[in-house]
Write a structure and sequence with these properties.
Porin, 18-stranded antiparallel beta barrel, 21 strands
Length: about 400
């Protein structure tokens, strides 16, 4: 397992800083976290015969937390590790968090490796740009790598302003030769290149203003630095295999996220304008969720989710969601086991391609949790964006123990 050289340097600096911050005698902190076993069942033979079939993996994510000075200062340490049976690239480790925090009445500091989430929509999070995607974890891109940062948040009556200095870049993780699901042809990380002469040592910056105005939560953000979304260009290895080479350009991105709550309605919008020398576009995801409370005179709720996904690049977009519609149902059973499920389908407006997904969770007793995920790809022959995954329908079962 290899890590970016900038990340290794920053990790050493962060560790020394946190050790010096925590040098004064304090009481012991607390540990919590989970250990999970996961199995993926694939229903068809892979498109590439090198890819694995059914696949087992195990993961662990403990978290250490300690605060002192009446809760004003804190230390958080969250390592993550996964062993995967079939994909060497998915067998990996990461530090999700290793950060010192300071909380005052009208400002907060975070220094170290941390995770920051921006976004409100269901289908994709366009404005969420601070952390890199850990794509080998989940194909939906929800899992993120830890990011070295210095973050100052100023809390005022007119909103909260977060200023971020991000020293060091994390490359996106991609499935390996045997990994599944994955893009075909595969991504070769050894061929990674950058627009910046500093490569993964470029210092990125970001600012975000957020505020609650009545029933509306709004956020405005700006980012300058290395794009978290690589452009993928065809290339060849020394053996002559055709692969995709990641290229990370320098971008400026302006973002807007809005969420409005009105009774049973939840209206959502995310929109970005991205400007780079190699890729300029606008994108937006907008929609609503309407919740039916206490259906059939029970304590269960059902939410209807609808969102439209737009990307100005059209068929040249690096995502398959350039002119698509999401329709979904969210089930919240409000029972003692916290059972929930989300069934969704994303359809391309220009062809007959669908991505159908199911996510469900249920607690088992006080410490166990069972999770189910399923994906079904219905791919139109003319749709090249999903063609790599046409044979990758799968069911994923996970059993996790929380401590």
């Amino acid at each position: 397992m290899q890590a970016n050289k900038a990340y290794i340097v920053n990790l050493r600096l962060v560790t020394l800083l946190l050790l010096s911050v925590c040098a004064s005698p304090v009481q012991a902190g607390s540990w919590r976290g989970y250990i999970a076993a996961q199995e993926r069942f694939f229903f068809d033979d892979p498109a590439d015969p090198r890819q694995h079939g059914n696949n087992f993996s195990i993961a662990a994510q403990p978290e250490y937390y300690h605060d002192w000075a009446d809760g004003k200062q804190s230390l958080t340490f969250t390592p993550f590790v996964r062993y995967d049976q079939g994909d060497d690239e998915r067998t990996h480790a990461d530090i999700r968090e290793l950060a010192w925090g300071y909380v005052a009445r009208d400002y907060e500091w975070t220094v170290g490796i941390s995770k920051v989430f921006w976004g409100v929509t269901e289908a994709q999070h366009l404005v969420d740009i601070i952390n890199q995607t850990d794509l080998v974890e989940e194909p939906d891109g929800e899992e993120k790598l830890g990011q070295p940062m210095i973050n100052l948040s100023l809390i005022r009556d007119w909103g909260t302003v977060g200023v971020f200095v991000l020293p060091g870049f994390r490359e996106r993780t991609f499935a390996g030769v045997n990994g599944r699901p994955r893009i075909i042809p595969r991504v070769e990380k050894n061929l990674t290149s950058y627009e910046s002469s500093r490569e993964d040592e470029h210092v990125d910056v970001a600012v975000r203003w957020s505020h609650a105005i009545g029933d509306m939560d709004i956020g405005l953000s700006w980012f300058h630095g290395t794009s978290r979304d690589p452009l993928l260009f065809p290339s060849t290895t020394d053996s002559g295999e055709i692969v995709l080479a990641p290229f990370y350009q320098i971008i400026d991105q302006a973002g807007l996220d809005v969420q409005l709550t009105k009774g049973n309605w939840l209206w959502k919008l995310e929109a970005i304008n991205r400007d780079g020398n190699y890729d300029k576009f606008r994108a937006a995801t907008a929609g609503f969720e309407y919740t039916f409370y206490g259906i059939f005179e029970t304590i269960a709720d059902v939410g209807l989710v609808m969102e439209y996904l737009y990307d100005s690049r059209g068929v040249l977009a690096t995502t398959p969601f350039e002119d698509d519609l999401l329709t979904g149902l969210r089930f919240t059973f409000n029972d003692a086991q916290s059972t929930d499920a989300l069934l969704g389908a994303i359809k391309d407006k220009d062809d007959d391609s669908y991505l159908i997904t199911l996510e469900a969770n249920r607690r088992l007793g006080d410490n166990w949790k069972m999770s189910l995920q399923a994906s079904k790809f219905i791919v139109d022959g003319l749709d090249q964006s999903l063609q790599s995954f046409a044979e990758d329908d799968y069911l994923q079962l996970e059993l996790a123990y929380y401590f």
